[in-house]
Amino acid sequence: MQIATRVGATKGKDVMTEVKKEGVGTPGAKFDKRPTPKLDELEGGPWPSFVTGLKRLRDSEDKPYAEYMNDLLGQLEHSYENRLGYWKGGTVSVFGYGGGIIPRFSEVGDKFPKSKEFHTLRVMPPAGYHYDTKTLRQMCDIWERHGSGLIAFHGQSGDIMFQGTTTDGCQKAFDELNEIGFDLGGAGPALRTSMSCVGHARCEMSMYDEPRAHRTILNDNVSEIHRPALPYKFKFKFSGCANDCVNAIHRADFAVIGTWRDDIKINQDEVRAYVEQQGRKYVIDHVVAMCPTRAVSLNDDNTLEIDNKSCVRCMHCINVMHKALAPGDDRGISVLIGGKRALKIGDLMGTMIVPFMKLETDEDYDKLREFARNCIDFFAENALEHERIGETLDRIGLPAFLSALGIDPDPNMVKHPRTSCYVRTDDFTDEAEKYFARKGLKKDGSAAEAAE
Amino acid sequence: MSQGAATQAPPKKRTPIESGVPDPKKFMHPVMVKNYGQWAYHERPRPGVLRHVAKSGDEIYTVRAGTQRQMDVYTIRRLCDIADNVGDGFVRFTTRSNIEYLTSSFEKVPALIKALNDAGFPVGGTGNSVSMISHTQGWLHCDIPGTDASGVVKSLMDMLHKEFITEDMPNRVRITTSCCQINCGGQGDIAINVQYTKPPKINHDIVANVCERPAVVARCPVAAIRPAMVNGKPSLEVDEKKCVCCGACYPPCPPMQINGADSTKIAIWVGGKHSNARSRPTFHKLAVANLPNNPPRWPEVEEIVRKILYAYKAGAKDWERMGEWIERIGWPRFFDETGLAFTKHHLDTWTGARHTMNMSAHVRF
Predict the structure, then answer these.
(1) Do A47 and B68 touch (CB under 8 A)?
(2) Is the Cβ pair A247, B95 closer than 8 Å?
(3) Checking CA distances to A252, which of A26, A87, A297, B185 falls within 20 to 30 Å?
(4) How far is CA B257 from the centre of its chain?
């Protein structure tokens, strides 16, 4: 509570005396500005310049970070001159946690001693990146007291990155950020900070409550975030539709994508209005012909016909004609597993594992929560060290993964069935019967047709 | 509970509150909270401005502006001042570090645009524009960077400014940068990534003290690293004929320096796509390698990006993303129209490479 009071009382003059005892340096310290001829060239041009921002921090002589940022600018200029980086990792954390801090120690600390420790706090943002100005200002005040004054919104993992503080500053800044409701994100072999799109907050394409799914899974597993104990990183990302604005399928081990099962909703008046505005040729070339499964057709009376059984829910026609077309009402999610970048076996997109799951009731969320937990457990128990779950899938094969998680095979999981004949199929008939049973058919599938 | 503990015994270390991901509704514009999950449609009145209409008839306007991502507290407070003085006090960030101002009154939109432009923040990044480049840390903070993403991005966004503030592209263009081959920046229509060109230079004196050698051996994707005694010290050696210069050994073992002032180069990749619209998501493909890593403005990179971007702009049909345009016109024409060379290095040699070859009689002339 003491700390929280201090946050709210930054206008009081007595705070200034307290500020002097903290932070990454001494306010009012005298120093010679390090020359930055190369970085200076990044101050011109129409785009906002990060160099101008760094200099502004250096020139804040009444702040503890001025001299710190002078040396930071010096080291960065040194990198620009020599075309090499000079930071090394290490081990820094806050009390009670094992991860969440990215430690940086300078390799050229003798030349630039003030900024020789330049650690980053990864802090989890509100799902969907929403802020009010009061919160942003509180963050600035805290980081001005205990850090460099430099904050990135956001890192590629989805964290707010409070960049640049000492080992001591990490704990102080975290304590204050934690008191205003923020928590550290993941780093190292751990559950990582997640991302969700703007979704339900503002988007008509949003097929489920992304922040709820995001918070349900992440907050259920906070210990996995804060105490790295997994074989390697594990990431969840949440996109409200197949436009996948948070790049979940490629960038997440567990991607949740909104979709729907019933028909696309068509407002034929809006279709006619769009055709009148754009012309038939434009609509045929850019909507009909661009449908990946040839499921869209423009009628002679300028209405649209959609073969919903062939539609793959790619979003293209809805994106282009978003006043005329809308996703159906029977909404839910797909889950794709195993996306990652190159290291070590090559790029992998996530693979469709759950083609459809409702996500409306508390029971639906419990099901998702349980599935997510099962995936993390499977990963923890079966992945090799430094192996992502996508690589585990490649190593053991999809059937083994499905069987471990109790998931039935589904033709939506493949682009096409296997082409290799090297497989043992002596239980094929049993498996086929299970498939027909799942489809609600009797015996071998043809029996149901006979019953009609 | 833990707050109380902190107050009573200051010397005792404070126990963290494991609050996890904050509830966004606490920070969300009231109109967005009220119409949560109940939106009907949207329009774009002009580049950088969105108008979302809820089923209730309520409206929310979004004004989107570019930022430098790595922001000093003065910049953030200035952005807050704009939200407080001209907007409704609520903002959000996009995945590409653009800031969005939310307001329920259309009357505030022109003032927000003016205030942002006056303060040097370009308004745009919506619809079929070139949005902000998603980027990584670089020399400012990363422990393994080959370049400085912030500088590359600043240089490119200066050039692309006019494409950010207009919506004149065939479809949205997503550019990424990455300071090493781990590629934290992700897939992009155009991806500007560090490409190492030489095997690591090993400081044998410190390998044994700094590196967990078996872990480093295991990290190599081509099994080119093996334990060795060098000058009487346990170290590691690299079979340079096998080495693909990926840099994977460098993060777990910093004495295996992969970067060199001249050997660290930039490669440009094209046709990556995350969205499922029309085609499935795709990985980006190599366009050109061996560009110099040339701070502070990377002019050679800028020139190639310009060539590729404007060839796409001139040639693509509406709604074709970069990769879809190339798929239609074919790779021979892509290399012709961009003036880039097709080399043996464009032929994939990794696992599954045959699936990237043209196993058909389809040929373009």
Answers:
(1) yes
(2) yes
(3) A87
(4) 24
